[in-house]
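for the recovery benchmark. C-alpha cells below, seq after
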C-alpha cells in the first residue's frame, strides 16, 4: 500500500468494538425494513429496492431499532452564546448534513435535536454522522471541536463550542 493510501486508512474510524446492532445482519440477505424502506442486500443497507422484493424478509433495520430503543451511537453537544443566538441556522446545517449522509448511508440518521439550558444536544444512529456534523459545524462557524470515541462501546461524543 502506498504512503497516501496508508495515511487515509489510518484516519478512518476503526472502532475496537463493532456496532452490536449490525452483528446479526452479517448472515442475512434480501431483507426490507417495514418502517423506513431500507433494503439489506449483498451485505449492506441501501435505499435501492430489492431485486426480488416478493421473497424478501421483513425486519426492522439497525437504525430504526436504535431509534425505537433510544440508544444513540453518537451525541453532539453544542455549547456557547453563539449556539443560543443562532440555533435555527445550526439546526438547518445539522439537518442538511444528515440528508447528505443519509442519502448514501441509510443507517446514519438523526434521532433528536433537543434544546437545553446550555445549548443544543443532538443524537444520531451512527458514528460517522455525528463526526460529520461536528466537522460541518467547525467548517461553517469555526469554534472548538472535540471528538471522543469510547473504546469500550460503539459510541462517539462530539463537543462543539463557540462563545
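predicted aa per position
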Amino acid at each position: 500500500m502506498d504512503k497516501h493510501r496508508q495515511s487515509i486508512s489510518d484516519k478512518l474510524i476503526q472502532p475496537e468494538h463493532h456496532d452490536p446492532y449490525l452483528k446479526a445482519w452479517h448472515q442475512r440477505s434480501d431483507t426490507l425494513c417495514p418502517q423506513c424502506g431500507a433494503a439489506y442486500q449483498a451485505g449492506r443497507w441501501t435505499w435501492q429496492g430489492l431485486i426480488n422484493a416478493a421473497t424478501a424478509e421483513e425486519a426492522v433495520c439497525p437504525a430504526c431499532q436504535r431509534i425505537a430503543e433510544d440508544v444513540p451511537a453518537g451525541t453532539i453537544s453544542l455549547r456557547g452564546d453563539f449556539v443560543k443566538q443562532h440555533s435555527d441556522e445550526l439546526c438547518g446545517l445539522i439537518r442538511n448534513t444528515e440528508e447528505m449522509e443519509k442519502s448514501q448511508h441509510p443507517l446514519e440518521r438523526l434521532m433528536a435535536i433537543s434544546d437545553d439550558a446550555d445549548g443544543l444536544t443532538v443524537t444520531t444512529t451512527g458514528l460517522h454522522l455525528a463526526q460529520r456534523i461536528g466537522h460541518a459545524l467547525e467548517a461553517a462557524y469555526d469554534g472548538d471541536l472535540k471528538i471522543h470515541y469510547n473504546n469500550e462501546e460503539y459510541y462517539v461524543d462530539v463537543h462543539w463550542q463557540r462563545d
